[in-house]
Write a structure and sequence with these properties.
The chain is mainly α and about 150 residues long. The protein has seven helices and two strands; from the N terminus they run αααααβααβ.
Length: about 150
């Protein structure tokens, strides 16, 4: 069976969405090198981080976190483009897995009750065929094992 998969790789190679190198067995959407190199915010490590300060007075929250920094023309902007416009749905799930793992490991973020992916406008959803936020939330939930509400917002 593996030879069929290997043969298919000749015509449809499974490549890293960030660097374009061939993915190894066990890698999904991003190679290990690119996963490690992603520019993480590390907001989970800081109380009163920049995101929390931005949201003060706007919403009642205990903790706010963002997974990655997104400088213009950087790798994260490229990955978001791949996810939203190139149909790379597995990338969304994989990014969610990476974020979910960090959230599950760090004490400050362990009390997540619910994941609420931001809905897409119905017209955009029909055109794209999927909601990228739901894909990220699905990946996160593999680690967080919490309630995933896709119809609440």
């Amino acid at each position: 069976m593996k030879w069929i998969s290997d043969f298919g790789q000749l015509f449809y190679p499974n490549v890293c969405a960030a660097c374009g190198n061939n993915l190894l067995t066990g890698e999904s959407a991003l190679c290990i090198s690119c996963q490690v190199a992603l520019p993480r915010t590390r907001y989970w490590a800081r109380k009163n981080n920049d995101l929390e300060k931005l949201l003060w007075g706007r919403v009642d929250l205990q903790v706010a976190d963002a997974f990655l920094l997104m400088p213009k023309k950087g790798v994260v902007q490229h990955l978001i483009h791949e996810l939203k416009y190139k149909g790379n749905q597995e990338l969304g799930v994989q990014l969610g897995r990476l974020f979910g793992k960090e959230m599950a490991i760090h004490q400050r973020l362990h009390d997540v009750d619910i994941l609420l992916p931001v809905p897409l406008h119905p017209h955009k959803q029909r055109i794209r065929g999927y909601n990228q936020c739901e894909l990220i939330a699905e990946g996160m939930n593999e680690w967080l094992k919490t309630s995933l509400e896709t119809e609440t917002l």
